[in-house]
């Protein structure tokens, strides 16, 4: 988790440094992550409750994949029009949209301690951004906000897909784009013929 957080924290800086456009950078990020996820799927057994095929959740997975692609594109576009710190801070608002979206669309109840945690997370993100408010709101900031909203939509959709699928299968179909399933859990020795 620490390694993933460090990689994510540096993603905006690395996107600025690479020599391709924002959409190509997003495609490379997802494309390079997909083989690692596919390898993980081979070693992680699926949960017994998720021993179904993704077909029943196809609509959610397709919509989630489209929203995820939109999120990646918007975030990378935001980096062309605002500071990395602004994009990261605005992106940190995503969990608030997720909680609000869960309450509005899925009637989820949020404990009060969650709002406290979200407030602390925003203060932390603001601290990392340099404790300054943006002097002006540019197109990059608007793209970052839209990216934050689409990311919260992706999280809500993947959560609904996970009601029927295990995490690896849902993520492979939704974000990785490769499809496939993790291997089923072993149930002792193989049956005799």
The overall average pLDDT, rounded, is 77
Number of helices: 8
The biggest beta sheet is recorded as: none
Strand coverage percent: under 5%
What is the overall silhouette?
globular
Query: Which radius of gyration do the C-alpha atoms yield?
Result: 19 Å
Q: How are helices and strands ordered from N to C?
A: HHHHHHHH
Quaternary structure: single chain
Brief descriptors of the model:
193 residues, mainly alpha, 67% helix, 0% strand, disordered C terminus
Describe the protein in words.
This protein is mainly α. The protein has a domain at 21-41 and 62-174. It has 8 helices and no strands. It has helices spanning 2-17, 22-43, 58-78, 84-91, 94-106, 112-128, 139-161, 167-176. α2 (22-43) crosses α3 (58-78), α2 (22-43) packs antiparallel against α8 (167-176) and α3 packs antiparallel against α7 (139-161). The longest helix is centred in the last third of the chain and has 23 residues, at 139-161. The termini are far apart. Mean pLDDT is 77; it is low at 177-193.
Provide a quick synopsis of the model.
The chain is mainly α and 193 residues long. It has helices at 2-17, 22-43, 58-78, 84-91, 94-106, 112-128, 139-161, 167-176.
Sequence-ordered SSE layout with sheet pairings:
Layout: H1 2-17, H2 22-43, H3 58-78, H4 84-91, H5 94-106, H6 112-128, H7 139-161, H8 167-176
Helix pairs in contact: 2-3, 2-8, 3-7, 3-8, 4-7, 5-7
């Amino acid at each position: 988790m620490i390694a993933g957080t460090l990689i994510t924290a540096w993603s905006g800086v690395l996107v600025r440094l690479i020599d391709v456009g924002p959409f190509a950078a997003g495609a490379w990020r997802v494309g390079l992550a997909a083989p690692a996820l596919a390898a993980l799927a081979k070693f992680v057994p699926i949960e017994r409750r998720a021993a179904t095929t993704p077909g029943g959740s196809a609509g959610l997975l397709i919509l989630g994949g489209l929203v995820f692609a939109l999120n990646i594109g918007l975030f990378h576009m935001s980096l062309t029009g605002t500071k990395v710190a602004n994009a990261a801070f605005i992106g940190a608002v995503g969990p608030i949209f997720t909680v609000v979206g869960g309450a509005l669309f899925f009637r989820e109840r949020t404990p009060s301690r969650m709002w406290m945690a979200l407030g602390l997370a925003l203060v932390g993100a603001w601290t990392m951004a340099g404790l300054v408010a943006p002097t002006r709101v540019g197109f990059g900031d608007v793209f970052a906000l839209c990216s934050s909203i689409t990311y919260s939509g992706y999280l809500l959709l993947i959560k609904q897909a996970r009601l029927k699928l295990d995490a690896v299968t849902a993520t492979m179909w939704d974000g990785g784009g490769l499809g496939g399933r993790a291997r089923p859990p072993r149930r002792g020795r193989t049956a005799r013929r």
